[in-house]
Amino acid sequence: MTLATAAAAALLFGAGSYLLLQRSLVRVVAGIALISQCAIVTIIGSSLSQGRAPLDPAEGGPLSDPLPQALALTALVIGMGTLALLLALVHRVVVAHGTAERDELRDVDRPGRDEVVRQEGDETE
Amino acid sequence: MTALSLSLLVPWAAGLLLVVLDGRRRTVGWLGAVTLAATIAVLGLLAADVLRDGAVEMVTGGWPAGVGIVLRADALGVTFALLSCIVLLAAACAETLLGVGQRTVPGLLVLLAAGLNGLFLTGDVFNFYVFFEMSMIAAYVLTGYGGGRAQLRAAVIFASVNLLGSFIFLLAVAGTYRVTGTLAMDDVAERIREVPPNAAIAVAVGFFVAFSVKLGLFPFHYWLPTVYADTRPSVAAVLSGAVANIGAYGLLRFGPGVFAEQIRLSATVLVVLGAASIVYGGVLAVARRRPAEMLAYSAIGQVGYVLVAVGVGGPVGFAAAVLYSVVNALNKALLFLTTAVRGPLVAGAFVVGALSVAGVPPAVGFVGKLAVFRSAVDAGSPTLVVLLVVGSALSLLYLFLVYQREFWAEEDRDAVTDAETRDTAPARGVSRRVPVVVLAVLLLAGGLWPEPLVAVSAAAADVLTASTNGAGP
Amino acid sequence: MTDPETPPGPTVIVRVVARLLLAPSVVVAVALIVKGYTKVGDGFAAGMVVGLAVALNAVAVGAHRAEAALPVLRHAPHAAVGGAFVALASGFFPVALGEPVFSHRPGPDEEVVSVGTAELMTAVSFDVGIFLLVVGVVTVLVHQLAEPDQEPPT
């Protein structure tokens, strides 16, 4: 059980890092999503215990630890929020830059920075 | 206890309300500023309580600690919360005076204050993470403020790198729970002693990496220059003056406060990384032309001092780290805000900020530098002292390069206006300079009458040393 | 599966199922909130159930047509903010009474007013707030990402 979740977490992290190094921003976002899932799997794998819900501990029998469940749920919610935010951000980048390739953003942005800066500055005058 | 709850409730509720309203209207901007001022007032009351009677603690729902979530205000947390709210207030005022260009900005600034207060005033590791994400989400959206190409690119870089940092933090939280079976900071600090050293150090490194990314320390700084230089000046001020406090606070709270033994073991590494940060940031800042970019590299150098002080440790080192974080946040907020306005008054404010960064007497930076020097002398390392002096000299050099380029050649100054920040082109008009001047006066006042600041940072350091010694075996 | 005349996109089955699922999803959500204190469920799960139904609807018929068919969806931002306020109020009202935040009324061992199997307490109103928040946020997100205001240049 622990080995399986550990392997799953490692796989998710590896795949996520691979995607993170890609040039397309959409893949970068997917990579971040995978890494967030890796963190959640780690929480579950590191501390989840099986048993009854601990609402009434007097009944006896093994209880499950509610804390990792709460942690995983909260982390999922936060992960969903940040993922949606990132996607919206990438969408706006595509609108503004006309591309979702990381390297092209740089080219679009800084073609011989100083000259452009001076020219445009003159225009504002 | 009421003040503690209110310090969360006021910015949270008001922030939600302000996000709905149209922030481009001037009244809404001022409402945001008033909310932040009210938050500062509540925090001031809380700080008075804390400094008089010691830490204020509250467990949610009235549960026993360990079941409910612990909210705790001690000298360290309150100091950072107050500091961040002051920086946010200055940024909100500056932005309102210049004219807000996006409807959600005042609300986001206030929500950021709520998130930061939450994380500075919690005694629970996971609750820290939740508020941390809350403030980071507000910060991600703020980074994209302006909506220009450069801002959007900065927002994507900032968000993706810092999310990675957040998930490393989450992994470290999972590890902490695994090895100690608790998430209340006090209990973690106690139980981490019985944990096998390898596991403990692995978890501690996770936290260290997460906070270093946030702070932009030397090996983790790669995202910082683009982001700070390409966002709007007031957002850069918020990022470097308020959001970066998360990193400094986290290093202090989780370092000496929780993983005291691990910090002691890795003191050399911390000092070396800090010194590398100082030199790297200083040298690269000298080589930059755009003021915003130079300030960004300067930010990397300045946080190095905090890390050096943490590495040296002991009451002197921790007090120096707190003091320097406070000073640095105010310096950076002032300097970034000056890039948005022009005029002789602003030039004067810039000089105050520059002197403060370099650690020249009338400004408060001197007090901060002095504290770090004292800790370096305490550590008995001449090399370190020399490095710190070199760092200060470099900062004086690059800041006066900026000054010369920006303020001496006032007439042809507009020719150097940056392409991306054209929409934020230096604004004229006396009222717009008020936030900058007030911050400068604050820095000068702190330098002329440093006793309160020194006392507060000593109290904050006491919190850390007490938690390391008090719970000792 | 599709014959050549039907437009590309989801089949008629998906569209019909998506529309039919909306009402049951709300029923399931209410059950999740009400049962959340002794069985599995809470405001977030309930919100996600409704949110998924809304998302399926948006995928099946498109965000604009979904909004036209169900004008309630236009109020999603208000629902989100209102929900956040309800949740905040249920969490922070004890401040006025001088108690720690998130103390719930009626407290442990106190008499609870119940309507059927639903027990009225502030914890439930907190979950209702979270439910509204989640539904609102998911709806706004899905509709924004499905049919954004500005179309990217092609």
UniProtKB/TrEMBL annotation, chain A:
Gene3D superfamilies attached to this UniProt entry: 1.10.287.3510
This protein's UniProt keywords: Cell membrane, Membrane, Oxidoreductase, Transmembrane, Transmembrane helix
Domain of life: Bacteria
Transmembrane segments: 6-21, 28-49, 69-90
Compartments in which it is found: Cell membrane
Region (Disordered): 104-125
One example GO MF annotation: NADH dehydrogenase (quinone) (non-electrogenic) activity
Pfam families: Oxidored_q2 (PF00420)
EC number(s) given by UniProt: 1.6.5.9
Membrane topology designation: Multi-pass membrane protein
First-listed, main subcellular location of the protein, grouped into a coarse class: membrane
Matching InterPro entries: CPA3_antiporter_subunitC, NUOK/Mnh_C1-like
Protein family according to the UniProt entry: Belongs to the CPA3 antiporters (TC 2.A.63) subunit C family.
Name assigned to this protein: NADH-quinone oxidoreductase subunit K
UniProtKB/TrEMBL annotation, chain B:
Membrane topology: Multi-pass membrane protein
Top-level taxon of the source organism: Bacteria
Spans traversing the lipid bilayer: 6-21, 28-48, 68-92, 104-122, 154-179, 199-223, 235-255, 267-287, 345-364, 384-403, 430-449
Natural source organism: Actinomycetospora lemnae
Entry similarity comment: Belongs to the CPA3 antiporters (TC 2.A.63) subunit D family.
Protein location: Cell membrane; Membrane
Keywords tagged on the record: Cell membrane, Membrane, Transmembrane, Transmembrane helix
UniProt xrefs under InterPro entries: CPA3_Na-H_Antiporter_D (IPR050586), NADH_UbQ_OxRdtase (IPR003918), ND/Mrp_TM (IPR001750)
Predominant location: membrane
Location of the NADH:quinone oxidoreductase/Mrp antiporter transmembrane domain: 123-395
Protein name per UniProt: Proton-conducting transporter membrane subunit
Automatic annotation (TrEMBL), chain C:
Subcellular location: Cell membrane
Keywords: Cell membrane, Membrane, Transmembrane, Transmembrane helix
Membrane topology recorded in Swiss-Prot or TrEMBL: Multi-pass membrane protein
Domain Na+/H+ antiporter MnhB subunit-related protein: 13-139
Pfam family name, one: MnhB
Domain of life of the native organism: Bacteria
Similarity annotation: Belongs to the CPA3 antiporters (TC 2.A.63) subunit B family.
Protein name in the entry: MnhB domain-containing protein
Organism, scientific name: Actinomycetospora lemnae
